[in-house]
Design a protein that fits this description.
5-stranded mixed sheet, 10 strands, alpha/beta, single chain
Length: about 210
């Protein structure tokens, strides 16, 4: 039977849920350097076969000989582009480390009890405001981390979607990267531990 392996792509590395606990193990590819405003995994494309082999060995070391039967449930930053999501899917699917790949944004994973809510997060390049309904992203706005106004974002959150204008919905602040100090009063703060606790129990059928 296929097992779901939760993974989180962060600003600097990849976190993979351990086999027999709710803890996460860090995957870092040697020789990868940080680049301003460019997600680290873009550099995988330059050494794709090597990186895929390294990741496959990493997963095998955690999940044992039947690791290829598993499904990777990958949680990506909220500002991940459509092309980046394609690359992520193809990279991991063709690594030989799994049988299938599913993806959702961090914002989509912030609440399991609310059918409608607003999420706010900050990556290495953007602040992302999203309206989530029924698990789907219905509206999204980006703000460059080098040029934004917290008051404007607060006002935009009130009218990001027509549903929001006529019915108040909760706001969740994703503080996974511990960089949301300016926005903590906007809504309910989700700490790194709370976020990983939610992800550790994720099932691919719900992704």
């Amino acid at each position: 039977m296929a097992k779901t392996i939760p993974m989180i792509i962060t600003n600097k590395n990849i976190l993979v849920k351990a086999k027999d606990s709710d803890k996460f193990v860090t995957f870092e590819m040697p020789g990868i350097e940080e680049s301003l405003n460019i997600p680290f995994y873009h550099q995988f494309a330059q050494r794709i076969a090597e990186c895929q082999r390294y990741f496959k060995d990493f997963i095998k070391g955690i999940y044992g000989k039947h690791f290829t039967r598993n499904i990777l449930a990958i949680i990506v930053p909220d500002d991940t582009s459509a092309l980046e999501r394609i690359f992520i899917k193809e990279f991991f699917l063709n690594s030989g480390a799994c049988k299938a790949v599913a993806q959702i944004t961090m914002g989509q994973a912030l609440s399991k009890t609310h059918s409608k809510y607003i999420s706010l997060s900050m990556s290495a390049r953007n602040i992302t405001l999203q309206y989530i309904s029924g698990g789907e992203v219905m509206a999204r706005r980006y703000y460059d981390i080098n040029d934004y106004n917290p008051k404007r974002i607060f006002e935009d959150a009130k009218r990001i979607h027509i549903d929001v204008e006529y019915a108040g919905v909760p706001v969740f602040i994703n503080n996974f990267n511990m960089n949301m100090d300016e926005f903590l009063e906007m809504g309910q703060v989700v700490t790194p531990k709370e976020f990983m606790d939610k992800i550790s129990a994720i099932d691919v059928e719900k992704v």
